[in-house]
Amino acid sequence: MLDNLKGHFLTVVRHRRKVREHCFKAGIFWRGLWHDMSKFSPTEFIPGVMYFQGSRSPNEKEREVIGYSQAWMHHKGRNRHHFEYWTDYNTVTKKLEPVKMPDVYIFEMFCDRVAASKIYNKENYKDDMPLAYFMRAKQKRMIEKETAEKLEFLLTMLAERGEEETFRYIRKQVRRNRVGMTRWRGFDMAKVKEVGGQDT
Fold first, then answer.
1. pTM of the model
2. Residue 174: which of 109, 110, 103 has the closest Cα?
3. Count of structural domains within the chain
4. Is 175 part of a structural domain of the chain?
């Protein structure tokens, strides 16, 4: 159990450090500083230690053992960079449905997914891995349509153009959002190759 404690703690710390680096590159500094702080709460940290494996999220093992992940349910309710947070009851259908994520949390979600891929794949990491992971569950995911398209847009840009151009694009979009220009420049999956280095 001591090895699990050390392994889980270091994984969380490394992940937060990597996300922080990405958020700084993306121009969303505060999101990087506050990212995943709930993982140090007892509700998340203790199961993280108990089900630590090192090659995948302990939440997956917790689900296999008890049928659900209490740590994940706690986490998704406190961290707005997870699309699962963004669900609510539709006033017309009276059903729980996904709602659109604000851009700043989409950018943090992108940083989070890339960091997680780097942490778990270690030296085998390649820029197309976060997109491949996202696409594997695309048809089963309960996520608002435009939110999913924006995330896929960024992950595709990463796979095809690399980190430098993708973070440059995000920084420009962050600046545009600050002055009320919320429409993403070049936001068209078919034109993703044209967008990377354009100025705003």
1. 0.88
2. 103
3. 1
4. yes
Q: Is the dihedral of CA 76, 79, 80, 82 positive or negative?
A: negative
Dihedral angle, C-alpha 102, 193, 129, 22, nearest 10 °? -50
* Domain hosting residue 108, numbered range: 80-195
Query: What is the pLDDT tens value at each position of the chain, 200 positions in all?
Result: 899 999 999 999 999 999 999 999 999 999 999 999 999 999 999 999 999 988 888 999 999 999 999 999 999 999 999 999 999 999 999 999 999 999 999 999 999 999 999 998 989 999 999 999 999 988 888 999 999 999 999 999 999 999 999 999 999 999 988 877 777 877 765 554 455 444 43
* Six-digit token string for 21: 């680096």
Establish if 176 belongs to a structural domain: yes
